[in-house]
């Protein structure tokens, strides 16, 4: 009984000690075995590991690619147009021993604070370099700038045992106090372009109207000239026809001219004429002898 009473607690202590000496590292982790704060063993492959209970401890770190959002900062490119930049980075713990030595017990939180400072410093340096303007940052060359930030940040982050996999600029906006001025300048530029287009349109319209007016004037002038020519030719033909007709019968010519004079005298409301008995009008109106045969009948 006395042996059994001692063996059972001893067995429990042995089992507990054995279990506490075992640790498991999965494929997503890396582990360090520390003894009094000093690194004793590095476990980077998944599986079981052993340590001395109560003397040694195991610290595990994530081996996956992690994400870090940087603080929003203002940068000033070479064209002096300030931009508000918001970026994020992808990184992983490349050297777990160097990582532990660099950040100590602070772990990922301390590492991300220091990595954030590195990223912000490199963003300011790259985006504020010579020949880098706000237009460059907003153009297709943006990818080149991001790769440059990544490479320079990676070189500095290696001292922390970190590998910077990628850096992306999420937003590159103007500060709020500059937006109104920028929008006003853009609006003024658009209005100036619109005014130029309107002026060019009015100029083209004036040219078209002037050409149309000249064409109308020339067409009317040519038409009037042709009409005058046609009218003159017609008048000449009519005069020639009348002259021929009147030359064949002089009595008829006298009669026709008398009738025209009579017609002009009785135009409008005037219907009264005073004639002497010897008037040539009465000779035509009162004589029943056919015109053109008076002298022939007397002969």
From TrEMBL:
Principal subcellular localisation of the protein: membrane
Any one biological process term the GO annotation gives: proteolysis
GO molecular-function terms, A-Z: peptidase activity
Example of a GO cellular component annotation carried by this entry: membrane
Claim: Hydrolase is one of the keywords in the record: yes
InterPro entries, per database record: Band_7 (IPR001107), Band_7/SPFH_dom_sf (IPR036013), HflC (IPR010200)
Protein keywords: Hydrolase, Membrane, Protease, Transmembrane, Transmembrane helix
Superkingdom, taxonomy of origin: Bacteria
Transmembrane segments: 6-25
Pfam families xref list: Band_7 (PF01145)
Membrane topology, record value: Single-pass membrane protein
Subcellular compartments: Membrane
Band domain residues: 20-186
Family named by the database record: Belongs to the band 7/mec-2 family. HflC subfamily.
Function: HflC and HflK could regulate a protease.
Full protein name: Protein HflC
Organism: Flavimaricola marinus
């Amino acid at each position: 009984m006395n042996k059994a009473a001692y063996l059972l607690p001893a067995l429990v202590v042995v089992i507990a000690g054995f279990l506490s000496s075992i640790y498991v590292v999965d494929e997503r982790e890396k582990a360090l075995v520390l003894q009094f704060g000093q690194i004793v063993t590095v476990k980077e492959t998944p599986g079981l590991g052993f340590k001395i209970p109560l003397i040694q401890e195991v610290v595990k770190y994530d081996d996956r690619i992690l994400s870090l959002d940087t603080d929003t900062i203002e940068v000033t490119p070479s064209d002096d147009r300030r931009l508000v930049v918001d970026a994020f980075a992808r990184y992983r713990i490349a050297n777990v021993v160097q990582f532990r030595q660099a950040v100590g017990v602070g772990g990922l939180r301390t590492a991300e604070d220091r990595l954030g400072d590195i990223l912000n410093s490199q963003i300011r340096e790259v985006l504020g370099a010579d020949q880098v303007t706000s237009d460059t940052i907003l153009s297709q060359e943006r990818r080149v700038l991001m790769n440059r930030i990544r490479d320079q940040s990676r070189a500095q982050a290696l001292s922390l045992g970190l590998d910077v996999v990628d850096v992306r600029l999420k937003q590159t906006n103007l500060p709020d106090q500059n937006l109104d001025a920028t929008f006003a300048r853009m609006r003024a530029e658009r209005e100036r372009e619109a005014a130029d287009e309107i002026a060019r349109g009015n100029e083209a319209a004036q040219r078209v109207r002037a050409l149309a007016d000249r064409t109308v004037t020339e067409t009317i002038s040519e038409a009037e000239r042709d009409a005058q020519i046609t009218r003159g030719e017609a008048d000449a033909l009519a005069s020639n026809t009348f002259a021929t007709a009147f030359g064949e019968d002089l009595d008829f010519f006298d009669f026709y001219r008398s009738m025209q004079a009579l017609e002009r005298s009785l135009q409008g409301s005037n219907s009264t004429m005073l004639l002497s008995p010897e008037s040539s009008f009465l000779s035509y109106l009162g004589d029943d002898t056919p015109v053109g045969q008076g002298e022939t009948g007397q002969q």
